[in-house]
UniProtKB/TrEMBL annotation:
Record protein name field: Transferrin-binding protein
Domain Transferrin-binding protein B N-lobe handle span(s) in chain numbering: 45-154
Biological source species: Glaesserella parasuis ZJ0906
SUPFAM superfamilies from the UniProt entry: OMPA-like
Swiss-Prot/TrEMBL keywords: Signal
Length: 221
């Protein structure tokens, strides 16, 4: 199994994959179809190096939890870059509840914003991923949250042949004013997604991000 992802978004999307592997050997999602992606010119996008996490930080991220939620990064005045915050563990087991939904809705409505939200297809029995985003966001106030959550994790590793996992995921990047983006013009404050405000899966309307991978628990591969 090999995934090649932008390191700015990897910190959160990888949590989805790790957490999903505890869902009783299945995402309970049928007919997941991989999306067709278009090639992107290397002149338009460049990978940004990020600091490696120390062992203590990795240990915290790998602790068992029902899910995680992160705030969408927004650069404050004078900041060139705002990285993804530490993921917060989710403890409630209500799959229909979007974390921090009322919080971001209150902030948005006080500033004439509008919140859109999304959870993954409810045909999935044990997991959800999604977001609550202020689409009319401006200034430096909070933009929204992206999350993954699940219920009834397995208490032991599945036995038997190689298992195939399928499911949806959502993401947020960091906010980096120095990142090169197409169709942006900083001279006229025309910043693109991922510059002053992080880009999220909500920016790609009508698209679904899916993953499929195999695990052989007998060999831990």
């Amino acid at each position: 199994m090999h995934f090649k992802l932008n390191p700015c978004a990897l910190a959160f999307t990888s949590l989805f994959l790790v957490a999903c592997s505890g869902g009783k050997g299945s995402f309970d999602l049928e007919d997941v179809q991989p999306n067709k992606t278009t090639g992107v010119s290397k002149e338009e996008y460049q990978d940004v190096e990020t600091d490696k996490k120390v062992k203590e930080q990795l240990g915290e991220l790998m602790e068992p939890a029902l899910g995680y939620v992160v705030k969408v990064p927004v650069s404050q005045s004078g900041a060139r870059r705002t990285e993804i915050s530490n993921p917060e563990a989710i403890t409630d087991e209500d799959l229909n509840k979007i974390p921090n939904h009322e919080t971001i809705k209150s902030v948005a409505y006080q500033n004439y914003g509008w919140v859109v939200d999304k959870t993954a297809d409810k045909t999935m029995k044990y997991v959800r991923s999604g977001y609550a985003i202020d689409v009319d966001h401006y200034g430096t106030r909070d933009k929204g949250y992206v999350f993954y959550k699940g219920i009834t994790p397995s208490k032991e590793l599945p036995q038997g042949p190689v298992l195939t996992y399928q499911g949806e995921w959502d993401f947020t990047s960091d906010a980096n004013l120095d990142a090169k983006r197409p169709n942006s013009n900083p001279e006229f404050n025309g910043y693109g997604p991922g510059q002053r405000i992080a880009t999220t899966s909500a920016n790609a309307k009508g698209r679904t991000y899916t993953s499929e991978f195999e695990v052989d628990f007998s060999t831990k591969n």
